[in-house]
Amino acid sequence: MASDPRLVTRRTIAGWLAAALAAAAAIVLAASDPGPRALAPPPPPVVADLPDAPGTVDLPPRDERPTTPPVALTPADGGRALVWAERGTGRVLRATLEGTRVVAPVLVADLPVVPGASAGVRGIAVDRRGRVLVSFVRRTGRRLVVVALRDGLRPRTVWVGPRAGRLRVGGGLAALPGGRVVVGIGDQGRLASAAQEGSLLGRVVTIDPGGRAGQEPRRRSRGWHDPLAIATDLRGRIWVADRLGGGDAERTGRADRPRLPTVRSPFRRAPIALAVTPDSRLLLACGLGSGRLDRTVRRGVGAGGVPQVLDVRCRYGATVVGDEVLVVDDAGAIVPAGTVAELAEADPLDG
User: Fold this and answer.
1) Which SUPFAM superfamilies match (predicted)?
2) Is this model's pTM higher than 0.70 or not?
């Protein structure tokens, strides 16, 4: 019995429609996720197959590690001061900077956090008005929140985010020159939830530092795993050194231009902090896992090549103040790592 040609036509049209819908879905995904195209060698099938970064320094024995090393280093007062938090706690400190020396630190806040390395204070930013903003996992409700610190007054809640899990919390914070503040939200290992359109998991968003706690954030990109290491530059570009998760490699890319490809790292270093040099040419990441500082050279509008690990010890934090780079070493000390020019010319470790 011959086939009805009208039936074939309907099936063909249905196939065309399905293909068109799939293509449209791919375009929407590309517009809201970091680009999947890799500029570095493709990642291995599982994260465990990634080698350690060149020159990786093992963590000291547990009883020799600092219990609350400085994290989230952030310059203030035009580079005349430095603000940071004690890892795993709610304590925020501020000190004067004399060159690269940190002088007379004082406690400016002790926030009601869930304690521990995967919670506590997650990020600090200083906006263009000089307001110090802090993201942390709040003890009440275990939510990721952002507050503005006020001298002599209780912190003002700027934004209440999603409930925080126990891994891949994110929480990176950075100020944009236009006035808004960037917040990174981890996927918490809940990839199915992060894939839902209405979810905030795995997103990089911006908020108004003068807004109310219930404000709706502006979504900039999605598909990130643990966006803790976030930095912005003077042109408003948002950079992320994403920590690995699931079967993915670590990635470096722009959260404000999700269609641009991200650079996949061929090794593990677990970025905990990211700094951008004043000319925006170098991205400097501090590796919690590698114990080293690495640099990624910006090329055009994107991140550029694979990270180059430097012969500089860095475990918990990094920032750029003027033409100097400050890092936090294994002992939990804030020390100078060299000038931007020196680190730009330094030979990378072999890998």
Assistant:
1) NHL repeat (SSF101898)
2) yes
